[in-house]
Amino acid sequence: MAVVELEGVKKVYRSGSGRRTVEVEALKGIALAVEEGEFVAIMGPSGSGKSTLLHILGLLDRPSAGSYRLAGQDVTALDEAEAARVRNRTIGFVFQAFFLLPRATALKNVELPLAYRGVPPRLRREQARTALAAVGLEDRLDHLPSELSGGQKQRVAIARALVQEPAILLADEPTGNLDSESGQEVMALFERLNAEGKTVILVTHEPEIAAHARRVIRMRDGEVVADEVR
Amino acid sequence: MRFADLFFTAIEALFAHKLRTFLSLLGVIIGVFAVTALISLGEIATYGIRRGLEQVAGRSVFIQGRFVPGKGPVRFSEADRRLLAALPARVIPYVFASALGHDARGKPVEVQVLGVPGDLPALDPGTELAEGRFFTRSEGKRGLPLAVLSQKAASELKARTGERVDLAFGPRRTRFFVVGVTKPLGGLFAGLNQPQAYVPYRWLWQHVPGLRRGRYHALELKVRPGVEVKLVAERAKALLAQRYGKDRIRVQSVESFTRALSQITLMLQALLGGIGALSLLVGGIGIMNIMLVSVAERTREIGLRKALGATAAAIRTQFLLEATLLTLTGGVLGVVLAAIVLYLVVAAVPFFEVFILSPKTVLLALGVSALVGIFFGVWPADQAARLDPIEALRYE
After folding, report:
1. What is the distance between the alpha carbons of residues B95 and B7, in angstroms, rounded to a whole number?
2. pLDDT of B200 above 90
3. Which of A17, A58, B55, B199 is deepest in the core (most CB within 10 A)?
4. Which of chain A's residues have a Cβ under 8 Å away from the Cβ of B313?
């Protein structure tokens, strides 16, 4: 079953005003279906529209045209609060710069999405602990981000995404801020999670990172130019 | 997000920058301190004035005639006195005269002479003796030349208890025997102390030309405990108005003074509170400034929270809560500071007799400080809530 279904998705940015308005088509009608359990890498040079696509997939942005179904639900035109709810329940983000709260322990960071879901403190601590154990950080629960290595930080961020039990994991250059060894660790983790059945979509411009995925989608100038499954 | 979580998130954010939090608090602390202290000082001063007034006039109603052109002066009679005796109050009649005495160097001193029945302290607990005794009622009835001097009269006439003093009513001079000296009025009303002499009114009737036997210049009603002074004043006025007409009678009580006083002090409190509120306004602007800085600094955090599922409403509540907690804390500290300073002022300045910090003032101060937080927090919180998560996550 398709988890992600995009049809004719366009994104147009307008800048300037009046006669000088300039329209830039960042996405020119994307059709894309991702099945449950897939591991997809989206590649392309900067300006290819891959980040815009990721933002639309993550419900951080709305398409100008076209439709988007996520986990069977039409999410094309949700209002702000509904979109926040869907993000909270079905999308797990992993960012290049980790984005951990600097004054919160690893455990607290992982609990955060559950707090926004309204899960009672005891239960969410339990779930956060399980998620951190799943990324091999059960002995770093009370560490602050500043006390963790880059690879560990990214694993905390992955645990934070996992704890949501999302329909898709969205990763934006997840190894961009890591040395190659830590990068390999993180990619191995993604592979393992995918082997356990998680749907992973990651954006990267590095071929060796994309090589971990089973399906690679190449973009250029707002269009999908290649879609290959290995 | 559960409210408790939002609450702790706000607390954590405030604790993350302790020095900054404290400095931005200062404005609110000073503002709330000013409002609380100024309002309370007003209350304390009012209390002092009111108590002073009660010492002077107690639970009294003063009845005098009012001059109306074409009609003679009102002089109260024994019948009036009996009429008023039906009221739940003690009636003290007064006859007024003026006399001249001489100080040690022979300089004339004008003395206000009050003719009273005798044993005034029993009738009016407000009259206290510093030394000696008051002439008794039977001495009064016999019209003996006995006098009780006010402190001021005693000192100016250089006369003490047991000595004699000469007082002249017109050409004739009489030697009075001084039996006692009254205590002077203290504090605020010290300025009202005058050379006065209490003598039996019967003596005045017999010896002072122009005074008619059985006529009084004024009547004082000492209202019994538990009875409202205002009520007695109204009844007395109604009774006497039947005889003399409403406009020829002047009835005054402490209540009428204090009512006027309350209005003045209320205005004064509003004025002082307003000045305090102005500094609170400045504090509030400081809070808004610091909240805007905080929102700008935490742009990425806000973007992250949104990506993880925070609604705009949750972000708004979080920042609003932060601002409100900040000002409310400032409010509590301001009230505590005001309490300490007021306590010290009351201990050090004799004019302020009692420490008053009314719950109403405290609630007002805390309520206003919370409102300041909400009012000045709304805009920064709204800025935070409206951040575009993509822009926020990209923000460096």
Report:
1. 74
2. yes
3. B199
4. 81
Q: Which two tokens stand for residue B85?
A: 């005796």
Residues in a beta bridge with B127: none
What pLDDT is recorded for position B58? 67
Assembly ipTM: 0.93
Burial bucket for residue B16 (CB in 10 Å: 0-12, 13-18, 19+):
middle
Residue B188 reports pLDDT greater than 70: no
C-alpha to C-alpha distance for B116 and B122, rounded to whole angstroms: 12
| Per-residue pLDDT, A1 | 75
Residues of B in contact with A117 (CB under 8 A): 309
What is the mean predicted confidence (pLDDT) over A183-212?
A: 92
Q: Which residues in chain B have their CB less than 8 angstroms from residue A78's CB?
A: none
Of B2, B309, B390, the CB nearest to A88: B309
Contact flag A115-B1 (C-beta cutoff 8 Å): yes
Catalogue the E-assigned strands of B120-229: 129-132, 146-149, 164-169, 172-182, 196-200, 215-216, 218-223
A82/A63 Cα distance (integer angstroms): 16
CATH architecture of A37-65+75-229: 3-Layer(aba) Sandwich (3.40)
- pLDDT tens readout for residues B222-271: 888 778 888 888 888 888 888 888 888 888 887 777 777 778 888 888 88
Check if A133 contacts B (Cβ < 8 Å): no
Nearest CA in chain A to B17: A103
The band of B55, judged by pLDDT with boundaries at 50, 70 and 90, is low
Measured between CB atoms, which of B300, B310, B390 is closest to A116?
B310
Q: Does the distance separating the beta carbons of A115 and B300 come in below 8 Å?
A: no
Quick check: B283 and B377 in contact, CB under 8 A?
Answer: no
Residues of chain B contacting A55 with CB distance shorter than 8 Å: 390
**By the CB < 8 Å criterion, does A81 face chain B?**
yes
Q: How far apart are the first and last CA of chain A?
A: 19
If you average pLDDT over each of A13-22, B121-130, B370-379, which comes out highest? B370-379
Domain ranges of chain A: 37-65+75-229
Is A112 part of the contact surface with chain B (CB cutoff 8 Å)?
yes
Helix B18-57 / helix B3-16 crossing angle, nearest 10 deg: 100
**Closest partner residue to B301 among A84, A101, A164, by Cβ?**
A101
Q: Cα(A27)–Cα(A48) distance, rounded to whole angstroms?
A: 8
Q: Alpha-carbon distance B161 to B132, whole Å?
A: 6
B313 touching A, CB under 8 A?
A: yes
Q: Where are the domains of chain B?
A: 3-53+260-394, 59-253
Collapsed DSSP state (helix, strand, coil) of residue A98: coil
Question: Do the beta carbons of residue B395 and residue B386 sit within 8 Å?
Answer: no
Cα–Cα distance measured from residue A169 to residue A133, given in angstroms and rounded to the nearest whole number: 18
Instruction: Tell me what the pLDDT averaged over chain B comes to.
Output: 86
**Across the strands, what pairs with B182?**
B129
Bridge-based pairing of strands B218-223 and B60-65 is antiparallel
Q: Is the CB of A98 inside 8 Å of chain B's CB atoms?
A: no
CB A102 within 8 A of CB A179: no
The partner residue sitting opposite B311, judged by closest CB among A81, A101, A112, is A81
Please tell me which of the candidates A60, A85, A121 has its beta carbon nearest to residue B389.
A60
| Cβ proximity of B176 and B198 under 8 Å | no
Tell whether B298 lies on the interface with A, counting CB pairs under 8 A: no
